[in-house]
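Q: Predict the bound structure with nicotinamide-adenine-dinucleotide.
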Amino acid sequence: MVNVGVMGTGYVGLVHGAVLSSYGFRVTCMDVDKQKIERLNQGISPIYEPGLEELLQSGLRAGNLVFTASAQQVVQTSDVLFIAVGTPAKEDGSADLSYVWDVVQQIGKHINGHKVIVSKSTMPVGTSRSIAMYLDGMLRGTPYRAHVASNPEFLRQGKAVSDSLSPSRVVIGAESDEAVQMLKKVYATHLEQDVPFLFTNRETAEMIKYASNSFLAVKISFINELALLSEKVGAKIQDIATGMGMDDRISPHFLQAGPGYGGSCFPKDTQAIVDVGRKNGEELYVVRAAIAANEKQKAKMVSKIEETLSFDGTLKGRTVAVWGLTFKPDTDDIRYSPSYEIIQGLLGRGAAVKVYCPQGMKQAKLYWTDLNGRIQYCGSEAECSQQADAIVLMTEWEQFRAANWEKIARGMRGNAFFDMRNMFAGDASVLQWFKYYPVGASEYGYPLREAQ
Ligand SMILES: NC(=O)c1ccc[n+]([C@@H]2O[C@H](COP(=O)([O-])OP(=O)(O)OC[C@H]3O[C@@H](n4cnc5c(N)ncnc54)[C@H](O)[C@@H]3O)[C@@H](O)[C@H]2O)c1
Ligand SMILES: O=c1ccn([C@@H]2O[C@H](COP(=O)(O)OP(=O)(O)O[C@H]3O[C@H](CO)[C@@H](O)[C@H](O)[C@H]3O)[C@@H](O)[C@H]2O)c(=O)[nH]1
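A: Predicted complex:
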């Protein structure tokens, strides 16, 4: 049986390690964050991800999932090592590969046999080859070999466990038989399940990851720009997306207009591919435009609220209830969430801001420290809306559907409802209580669908 090592226990490392342990592999997960490792050893997940904690606990109980802070232990007990550390954006938009190189150095230092090294982290084209060259240099004069492969990860947060159990595809960029054979063993379950596999070279695998994320970001920015136009010309963006999506070549996915994309991947990966383009003398105009349109979208959402609510060109004296801080539902991740910029925009125009999020408030208090003392954290959507002039729904958490609308509306000072996710478009049970402002349709253009 193959011994698997995972370096980095963020979303990708943890979910990948836990899923492989559920397939019966002995998996050692390593992280430099000792507190995280301590909690993981107690079966406590450091992130909110449906189904993950159960998987961690069953791996720990079965004894085939081990957490350690020792790089030596993970390197020396594993046949295959997955690199799953962060590759965040630097100030200039390029990918910060310092965590990746820390891990590679640890591998070179502790290596005690032939190993297959697999990058799951999203890395600019050429990085896997550089890692291979670096390790070859370090191992010169020893009997050991490092076979380096790229195996990008496509999981979505909030659906990470199910995406890992049933991935859309497995992409393997490998240039040695040892690496290919090892990854076929690791992914034997997916091979049996007829998950599509693509074997290619390392550069192509690295590019597929950036290409996929950039393309999805382009799709979102495209529909968001059309949403802004639709508001001006009396068209309805949801119907436009439905009509476009009826063409298989376009598909209806990733055509939900909203306040702009966020998260730990699209914003940094679009910037990183533009940076790679620039360094190679190719301007990626389409991706650059998607980034610019995303910034515009967030600013436009603030202007829309301001234009609707302001008395005297500012939002002084207005109270806004923001529902949802995470960049999407079913995660506690607030990285690059559009909520942050919308809140900043509202505060900058003088509004008082109250917030509520089912899972994101702990992280927000911890990381959005510049907002501490400037916004009021509330215990529920109803408390958040008390005496507010407007609700701004930022994240489409399912629990919002069960809100007591009459109670919420009666507890408010005003009755504006900005639905940045079009979650309640056409829903008469909600619309009867509010002046409703969706994204991508003029106020009078609704309901989009006839209320049942
Ligand atoms: N989050 C996602 O949904 C997702 C999906 C696909 C791909 N990716 C990519 O996967 C990579 C990891 O993303 P993430 O969101 O899981 O990261 P993360 O930021 O959540 O976690 C990274 C982890 O690596 C640890 N780490 C840092 N240096 C280390 C070292 N030297 N040794 C061991 N551990 C170390 C950190 O302590 C942290 O726990 C990134 O390149 C990202 O772009 C992320
Ligand atoms: O039609 C849509 C779809 C998404 N979004 C927004 O786009 C962002 C990203 O959403 P999503 O892609 O669902 O979340 P992630 O978990 O960031 O997953 C993306 O980024 C991961 C990290 O690279 C990849 O692995 C996944 O395949 C890719 O979907 C969020 O702010 C969403 O609200 C929209 O505004 N409209």
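A: Residues 3-200 form a domain with the Rossmann fold fold (CATH 3.40.50.720).
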